[in-house]
């Protein structure tokens, strides 16, 4: 049995734990008949034939290790069909490296973009298994991605720390949480840390609603307010613009404010005269050791991937649905995004306890 493995896109916690699950599972089933080729730095390694032959020992002791022992890089899906600067056909190069090594399959760990390329390789005839990783939890077809809960822990701890200083100084604080397109991380961390206002890309905000929520707290005698704001939070006015116009406007604003949080902070200061502080934990949210939940999830998904490989059930993502691992055809899920439903119970429950979503 010869398998290739790569980790692509933004890293997250539990990538190593997931690969360990795959290899330990295969070792126990295949015993001595197992060769592992680890492609370095994501699809780059598969395109340019940059790989290391690995053994089971390489996957020992990495359950708790953050990052990825294979390295990662972003190789946008939309550029996969575009030849590189030397005219190399990337898709053909990936197929040729796969075939030259005589692989039985390639295990691809990544998020949405990575999954689209995995599906492309499937369409091109390669045997592919995809494992859903990302702190964004936006992969369609799985209830959860590994990395998500570890990031929730970090973002929550950040907001917890901000809470105490915000209360001491009676300040308005904004904590900007990762997530350009979806707000799962902001929603979960916001609820877990008792944020007063949560702004998500899926629920465009109105300035007046944010100001009302702050005012309401003042009237209740609460001198501080905490906003958990997703990187991709957007105002109702901006969301209503045609795509091109919106892009141009946001690009112009990016010269004035480094991110949406600073724009909102400015708006609050101008309207209320109050000091507003912005905290951005940024890539810390993707770093460090995976939390126990992610260790368990990634180990289960990795082990289930090993079984899928031995059963030769290729072309699938290994998902977790209602607490059970399940194979989901890549053809059904690639290119779809799992977003927060503004009408979901969780959003309604959060609103019921007084959290404002700025809408
Ligand atoms: O997709 C994961 C993610 O961490 C997003 O939440 C974030 O917006 C983005 O990656 C950051 O990307 P980069 O590491 O390329 O700056």
Explained architecture:
The protein has helices at 15-30, 43-48, 90-100, 112-123, 148-169, 184-193, 207-219, 236-240, 243-256, 260-272, 292-310, 330-333, 345-352; strands at 2-7, 35-39, 51-54, 105-110, 128-132, 172-177, 197-199, 225-230, 276-279, 316-321, 324-329. It is 43% helix and 16% strand. Helix 1 (15-30) packs parallel to helix 11 (292-310) and helix 5 (148-169) packs across helix 6. By secondary structure, it is of the alpha/beta class. The protein folds into 2 domains: 2-147 and 290-333, 3-Layer(aba) Sandwich (Rossmann fold); 150-286, 3-Layer(aba) Sandwich (Rossmann fold). The model has no long low-confidence stretch (mean pLDDT 97). The longest helix is centred in the middle third of the chain and has 22 residues, at 148-169. Strand 4 (105-110), helix 4 (112-123) and strand 5 form a beta-alpha-beta unit. The structure holds 6-O-phosphono-beta-D-fructofuranose. 6-O-phosphono-beta-D-fructofuranose is lined by residues 10, 74, 111, 134-136, 178-180, 231, 286.
CATH architecture of the largest domain: 3-Layer(aba) Sandwich
Looking at the structure, the CATH topology of the largest domain is Rossmann fold
**Total number of beta strands:** 11
Total domain modules: 2
- The parts where pLDDT drops under 50 for at least 5 residues are none
> Would you tell me the structural class of the helices and strands?
alpha/beta
Mean pLDDT: 97
Bound molecules: 6-O-phosphono-beta-D-fructofuranose
Major sheet strand order: 3-2-1-4-5-10-11
Strand content: 15-25%
Q: How would you describe the shape?
A: elongated
Helix content: 40-55%
Report the major sheet.
7 strands, mixed
* CATH C-level name of the largest domain: Alpha Beta
The radius of gyration computed from the alpha-carbon positions, rounded to a whole number of angstroms, is 22 Å
Q: Termini, distance in Å?
A: 54 Å
Cofactor: Mg(2+)
Catalytic activity: beta-D-fructose 6-phosphate + ATP = beta-D-fructose 1,6-bisphosphate + ADP + H(+)
EC number: 2.7.1.11
Keywords: ATP-binding, Cytoplasm, Glycolysis, Kinase, Magnesium, Metal-binding, Nucleotide-binding, Transferase
């Amino acid at each position: 049995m010869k398998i290739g493995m790569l980790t692509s896109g933004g890293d997250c916690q539990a990538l190593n734990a997931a690969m360990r699950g795959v290899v330990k599972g295969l070792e126990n089933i295949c015993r001595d008949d197992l060769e592992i080729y680890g492609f370095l730095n994501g699809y780059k390694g598969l395109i340019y034939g940059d790989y290391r032959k690995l053994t089971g020992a390489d996957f020992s002791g990495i359950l708790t290790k953050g990052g990825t022992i294979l390295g990662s890089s972003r190789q946008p899906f939309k550029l996969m069909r575009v030849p590189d600067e030397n005219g190399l056909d990337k898709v053909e190069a990936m197929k040729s490296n796969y075939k030259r090594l005589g692989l039985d399959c390639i295990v691809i760990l990544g998020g949405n973009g990575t999954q689209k390329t995995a599906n492309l390789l499937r369409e091109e005839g390669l045997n592919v298994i995809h494992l859903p990783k990302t702190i964004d939890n936006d992969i369609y077809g799985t209830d959860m991605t590994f990395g998500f809960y570890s990031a929730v822990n970090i973002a929550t701890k950040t907001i917890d720390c901000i809470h105490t200083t915000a209360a001491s100084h009676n300040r308005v604080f904004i904590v900007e949480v990762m997530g350009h397109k979806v707000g799962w991380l902001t929603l979960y961390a916001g609820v877990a840390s008792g944020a007063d206002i949560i702004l998500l890309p899926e629920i465009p905000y109105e300035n007046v609603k944010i100001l009302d929520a702050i005012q309401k707290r003042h009237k209740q005698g609460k001198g501080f307010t905490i906003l958990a704001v997703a990187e991709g939070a957007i105002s109702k006015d901006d969301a209503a613009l045609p795509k091109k116009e919106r892009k141009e406007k946001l690009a112009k604003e990016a010269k004035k404010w480094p991110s949406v949080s600073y724009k909102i902070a400015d708006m609050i200061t101008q309207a209320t005269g109050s000091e507003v502080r912005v905290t951005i934990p940024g890539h810390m949210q993707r770093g460090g050791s995976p939390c126990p939940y992610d260790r368990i999830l990634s180990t289960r998904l990795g082990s289930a991937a090993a079984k899928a490989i031995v059963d030769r059930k290729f072309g699938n993502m290994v998902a977790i649905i209602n607490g059970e691992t399940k194979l989901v055809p890549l053809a059904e899920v690639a290119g779809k995004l799992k977003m927060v439903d503004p009408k979901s119970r969780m959003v309604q429950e959060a609103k019921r306890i007084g959290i404002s979503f700025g809408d």
